[in-house]
Specification:
Keywords: Signal. With 389 residues, the chain is an alpha/beta fold. It is built from 12 helices and 15 strands. Strands 7, 8, 9, 10, 11, 12, 13, 14 and 15 form a 9-stranded mixed beta sheet that branches. The structure holds P-hydroxybenzoic acid (PHB).
Length: 389
């Protein structure tokens, strides 16, 4: 019996050595911390789909290492975020955390990643702080900063659309504050004035009182940040209240992304800005959309793209490090220097590890967010407060 064990050990060791060391035997553990329930559930699913699709396209391996997945439903609840992320870091001992959607949850994750040194790739949450004061060598984002998603819409609303006054409406939390803040900055720098900023608690969808206030104030335009199921309800309620006929509703593109099947007539003609649009027409995007539709029997959205690109970023780092994520400097430098061939168009990372990317102006036509123009080319987040080591 003992002899048998020894023999098996020798075989395993030989295999490990042939594969480039003992590390080559283990799988890379990827922990998804995403919302799989609640108003952002569809977003979490799309991110997971996109990530898994890239891994599948690479034959199940990144940088020569097989991938093993772990999952936690974060419910978009900041109060549970530290416990949830520690489940992945301490219990499952993951090598990489991929998450999340909600900015408040993401900030707790960034804190835990900074303390533990675990690699964190943020596939959505735009919290400005994550690539601002909380920036760190092991924290990367494949999505956007909140400011970045909305600043261009403010400029377009004032300069191209000629609007002078606007009201904003959103959920009261980091993403809502920063996205409407980005719009306000762009709008007011371009000569407009935000006359009132309306909020309600996340994830409430009782919009009627606020819609009545908008109807009474009659601004030239309204800018909103909502996403997921909340965005569906808001756009429908705005339309049902008769407001879309008189006061154009603008948004960061989250307001109409992955939601058009459900929003239908209510969303037609809406203008938004975002770092992705449907049918960009490039070969890269066409291949991505075809594969996604085949794999999941549904069309991809911006969240699927961000999940896919999180896997691409991990692949770049792992490949450079020969599959050894412990080679932190090599891993990090490779991602910092890379150009990521995203379905959205190529992007690079800023010093703070946030995408530097084109922001599209899009218009809803049928079930698509059609690209009208590039509202801002290679837009970089200002990364206020980031001191990268
Ligand atoms: C965020 O909380 O940062 C957030 C959530 C959903 C979005 C965009 C940003 O669609």
């Amino acid at each position: 019996m003992i002899k048998q064990w020894t023999a098996m050990g020798a075989v395993a060791l030989a295999a490990a050595t042939a594969g480039g060391g003992a590390m080559a035997q283990d799988k890379i553990k990827v922990g998804f911390m995403l919302p799989f329930s609640g108003t952002y559930a569809a977003l979490g699913n799309a991110i997971e789909n996109g990530f898994r699709m890239h891994v599948a396209e690479q034959g199940g391996k990144l940088g020569g290492r097989e991938i093993e997945f772990f999952k936690v439903d974060d419910e978009s609840d900041p109060a549970k975020a530290t416990d949830n992320v520690n489940r992945l870091i301490k219990r499952d001992k993951v090598d990489v955390i991929v998450g999340t959607v909600h900015s408040g949850v993401a900030m707790a994750m960034a804190r835990a990643a900074k303390e533990s040194g675990t690699v964190l790739i943020v596939p959505n949450a735009g919290a400005d702080a994550v690539t601002g004061p909380m920036c760190a060598p092991n924290i990367f984002r494949s999505s956007f900063s909140n400011w970045q998603s909305a600043y261009p819409m403010g400029v377009v609303a004032a300069k191209q659309e000629g609007k002078k006054t606007a009201m904003t409406i959103t959920w009261k939390y980091a993403a809502g504050d920063e996205i409407t803040g980005g719009f306000k900055e762009g709008f007011e720098k371009s000569g407009g004035k935000v006359v009132k900023q309306l909020t309600l608690p996340f994830p409430n969808v009782e919009f009627q009182a606020l819609l009545t206030e908008i109807a009474a104030a009659k601004p030239d335009a309204v800018f909103a940040f909502f996403a997921g199921a909340g965005a569906v309800k808001f756009v429908k309620d705005y339309h049902a209240a008769g407001l879309s006929k008189t006061i154009p509703l603008y948004g960061a593109g989250f307001l109409t992304d992955g939601t058009l099947d459900a929003q239908g007539e209510a969303a037609q003609g809406m203008l938004t800005t975002l770092h992705y649009a449907d049918e960009l027409g490039t070969e890269r995007d066409k291949t991505f959309r075809t594969n996604y539709a085949k794999s999941y029997k549904l069309m991809p959205d911006v969240y699927a793209v961000q999940g896919y690109d999180a896997a691409q970023m991990l692949a770049v780092g792992l490949k450079a490090a020969g599959g050894d994520i412990g080679k932190k400097d090599v891993f990090r430098t490779a991602i910092e220097k890379a150009t990521i061939p995203s379905p959205r168009g190529d992007f690079t990372l800023s010093k703070a590890h946030n995408p530097v990317q084109d922001m599209y102006l899009r218009k809803v036509e049928g079930k698509e967010n059609r690209k009208i123009s590039v509202a801002m080319k290679a837009l970089a987040d200002p990364a206020r407060g980031c001191r990268m080591q």
